[in-house]
Amino acid sequence: MRISLNSAAKERLLTFMSVRGITNVTHGLNVLITEAALANLIPTGVDTNGNSRANKQAD
């Protein structure tokens, strides 16, 4: 998967990684995604109606 970040998002990600001592960008993104999931920051609708494998197979 390829993710493009605008300059503001890139700076925020690099700051987040720097504070935590993370040097691998992929690991930094994984940490953010995990924290968002654990804090319920990802809406249920995205989980159930997103681009899941089950939805793609139903098409």
Summarize the structure in words.
The mean pLDDT is 78. With 59 residues, this protein is mostly helical. It is 68% helix and 0% strand. It is globular, with a radius of gyration of 14 Å. The chain has one domain (1-43).
Task: Give the tags.
59 residues, mainly alpha, globular
The main pleated sheet reads as: none
Calculate the terminal CA-CA distance, rounded to whole Å.
21 Å
Number of strands: 0
Uncertain spans: none
Helix content: 55-70%
Shape, principal axes of CA atoms:
globular
Query: Looking at the chains present, what oligomeric state does this protein adopt?
Result: single chain
**How big is the Rg?**
14 Å
Number of helical segments?
Answer: 4
Structural class: mainly alpha
Strand content: under 5%
Counting structural domains, the number is 1
Mean pLDDT: 78
Order of helices and strands: HHHH
List the helices and strands and how they pair.
Layout: H1 7-20, H2 25-38, H3 44-49, H4 53-58
